[in-house]
Design a protein that fits this description.
Helix content: over 70%
Distance between the termini: 47 Å
Largest sheet: 2 strands, antiparallel
Number of domains: 1
Number of helices: 4
Strand order of the largest sheet: 1-2
Length: 222
């Protein structure tokens, strides 16, 4: 006899019943571990949420100021002159260090050159006007804010992906795999109980048949 729940080829044997029960326990433990990981990921994300929101707000405010000044500089100098003044005169060097948070690979900036400079190294000539100098300064501040926020944003993104993946795994185990195994166990148990009833009936019939054939048994004795 075979069962149809979970594995249609599984034989209804006590060994198969034990294997299914062990599998159910393994799935339960795996789901519990993933649930704890999911809760830890949520905790990590909540801890990063407020600093990230503050950083995004600061970036938005600084970008609004920088682009207003950029429009003023564009009006004062024209696109061609402003393009010449904005040509990069240096490279920013970064030192990154890899790590992991609950198995999720992340990276952080451990050392970097500051983007904000003094007016002289910035190289904005006096004839370019004050809006141009202020625009350059504000964009350098904006670069610093973006570089400070970038590692955190990367961690949030990767933790969010890990959280979504872990949630799917938990749901798969609890809502699909566990019910399938439970149905499979119930099918095996029902098949074994039916087989035991049939065996008892056969044994009862055999004993009754043998008792009728014993010497001294007289059917319909008066």
């Amino acid at each position: 006899m075979t069962i149809g729940a979970g594995n249609p080829e599984a034989a209804a044997t006590r060994m198969e019943l034990l294997k299914t029960r062990r599998r159910i326990e393994q799935v339960r433990r795996a789901a519990d571990l993933l649930e704890r990981k999911r809760e830890a990921l949520i905790g990590e994300l909540l801890g990063l949420a407020r600093p990230a929101l503050d950083a995004r707000s600061a970036i938005d405010e600084r970008a609004a100021v920088a682009y207003r000044l950029l429009l003023a500089a564009l009006g004062a100098n024209g696109a061609a002159e402003l393009r010449t003044l904005s040509w990069p005169t240096r490279y920013l060097e970064l030192e990154l260090r890899g790590g992991s948070v609950w198995g999720v690979p992340v990276a952080e900036i451990v050392d970097r050159d500051p983007a904000v400079r003094e007016p002289a190294p910035r190289g904005i000539p006096a004839h370019a006007g004050l809006p141009t100098a202020l625009a350059a300064e504000n964009f350098e501040v904006l670069i610093d804010l973006l570089l400070d926020a970038a590692p955190r944003e990367m961690v949030i993104r990767r933790l969010g992906l890990a959280l979504a993946r872990t949630t799917r795994q938990v749901n798969t185990l609890r809502l699909r795999v566990s019910p399938q195994l439970a149905r499979r166990e119930a099918g095996i148990r029902a098949a074994l109980e039916e087989r035991e009833r049939e065996e008892r009936l056969r044994l009862k019939h055999l004993l009754s048949h043998r008792s009728r054939k014993r010497p001294g048994f007289r059917q319909g004795a008066r």
